[in-house]
Write a structure and sequence with these properties.
Helix 9 (356-377) runs antiparallel to helix 11. 17% of the residues are buried. This protein has a five-stranded antiparallel beta sheet. It starts with a helix and ends with a strand. The longest helix has 100 residues, at 180-279. The protein is 63% helix and 16% strand. It contains eleven helices and ten strands. The protein is of the alpha+beta class.
Length: 451
């Protein structure tokens, strides 16, 4: 899994987890709210129905109030009251019923076959004595009673909430009731609507999650494409720099070989040929031949020194054999010898854990800096200080030369190549390079992690 895929997952996975957590929280809270709302609606609905039943019973008692208050107990008065009550109804399942205190049904408009029957021992399928409980409730001040009864409109036995009062002068129990399956139907309908709303909300959250992931994916693809283009451009620039650096190094080697070693070898060849020619002459010429050979040997030593210098510039053996400190010390002394400047090297520690790559980077930076000083600084004194601690290695190269305009060099693409190379070498191994220059001199500081 590459870095871009990891970044994409780090962007998408937390978003999906967050949206799932939000969805679960919304669903949980919505479910709790729905349950509370259903309980509140059911309670409010039942209370309204209870109040409604009280009003109905009050209307029923008022409809027979004149007969009841007259104090009559004869059969004619009681039959008239039964007739009035039996005609009072409200809807298919809304009616009034009357029982006497012994459980005999006196009025039942929806089930006339029960009229005259003693239902005292009637029990529901749970074993509860229905009529006894209604009579008991009426005799104790009246009120509400839950029981099971056959619903006239459907013929099914369903829960019923009854409201009963007693008419003590006649020994009657008058009541009415509502069937609770109607309440359940209302609550179920409301529950269905709430469930649909919750599902709709979850669908919206799912849609938002999918849209968000798609948007992130599109932006990720766009960013990936853009990064690829930028990376390709940087690679092209880097490749051009590498090729340019190689060509510069080859040109420098060519100049060193042509201007130094090649000319010296030609001079040595001429000296040797001159000496050989003089050896064939008289004794005086033979003595001069010895001098020609001596000069040729001296020039040959100079050529060998140049070859060693070029070899050290390419890859100093001291860096591999004796380490960075010895290599920098030798580089400083060699620079002082051929640049004719006063140069010295100082260090305040021993490098133990610095990687070979960082050692090479420091050596190359020192080489480039000393080359720039020799070519451009016109300095008399140069110092190279190497300080080491547990966190970093710092190399400071200072000179007392004429300095240069840093902004002018940075803005000119044909100048400052060596400075860019030094910056890139330091950054490539996790370090950084700082530079300050003025008319009093120039100071370069390279800082690399010690590891």
């Amino acid at each position: 899994m590459n870095l871009r895929q990891k970044i994409f997952l780090l962007a998408v996975v937390p978003l999906i987890v967050a949206l799932c957590a939000i969805a679960l929280a919304v669903q949980h809270q919505a479910t709790l709210l729905a349950q509370q709302q259903l309980k509140s609606v059911e309670s409010a609905y039942l209370k309204s129905k209870e109040a409604e039943m009280r009003h109905y019973v009050t209307l029923a008692t008022r409809s027979i109030k004149a007969i009841y208050d007259s104090g009559r107990h004869d059969a004619l008065a009681l039959e008239e009251a039964k007739r009035i009550i039996s005609k009072l109804d409200y809807g298919d399942d809304g009616y009034f019923f009357v029982y006497d205190m012994q459980g005999v049904n006196l009025v039942h408009p929806r089930q006339p076959e029960l009229v005259g029957q003693n239902l005292w021992e009637l029990r529901d399928n749970k074993g509860n004595p229905t009529i006894q409980r209604l009579i008991f409730r009426a005799n104790h001040g009246g009120g509400l009673e839950r029981y099971l009864w056959e619903k006239p409109s459907t013929g099914n036995v369903v829960p019923k909430l009854g409201y009963v009062i007693s008419l003590p002068n006649w020994g009657w129990v008058l009541g009415t009731g509502i069937y609770l399956d109607d309440v359940d139907a209302v609550v179920n309908k409301l529950d269905t609507q709430i469930s649909r709303n919750i599902q709709s909300t979850m669908l919206w959250i799912t849609g938002i999650a999918i849209a968000s992931v798609l948007v992130i994916a599109l932006f990720g693809l766009a960013l990936n494409f853009s990064e690829h283009r930028v990376a390709d451009a940087k690679l092209k620039v880097l490749a051009q720099r590498v090729v340019h650096s190689q060509e510069e190094e080859r040109a420098r080697l060519s100049r060193d070989l042509h201007d130094g070693i090649s000319q010296s070898l030609v001079s040595i060849k001429l000296q040797v040929e001159s000496g050989i020619a003089k050896l064939a002459g008289p004794q005086a010429q033979a003595d001069l031949a010895s001098q020609s050979f001596d000069r040729a040997a001296a020039q040959l030593n100079h050529v060998l020194g140049e070859v060693r210098r070029i070899s050290h510039n390419l890859r100093p053996t001291l860096l591999d054999d004796l380490g960075l400190v010895a290599a920098l010390d030798h580089l400083t002394r060699e620079f002082a010898g051929h640049a004719m400047m006063n140069a010295h090297f100082m260090t305040d520690g021993h490098i133990e854990h610095l990687s070979e790559v960082r050692k090479t980077a420091l050596f190359r930076i020192a080489q480039e800096a000393l080359t720039n000083i020799e070519r451009h600084a016109a300095a008399a004194n140069v110092s190279l200080n190497l300080s080491i601690d547990c966190a970093a290695v710092r190399m400071v190269i200072s000179d007392d030369g004429k300095g240069f305009d840093m902004e002018l060099v940075a803005d000119n693409p044909k100048r400052g190549i060596g400075l860019r190379n030094m910056h890139e070498r330091a950054e490539a191994v996790g370090g950084h390079l700082s530079l300050s220059s003025s008319a009093e001199g120039t100071q370069l500081t390279a800082t690399l992690p010690n590891g």
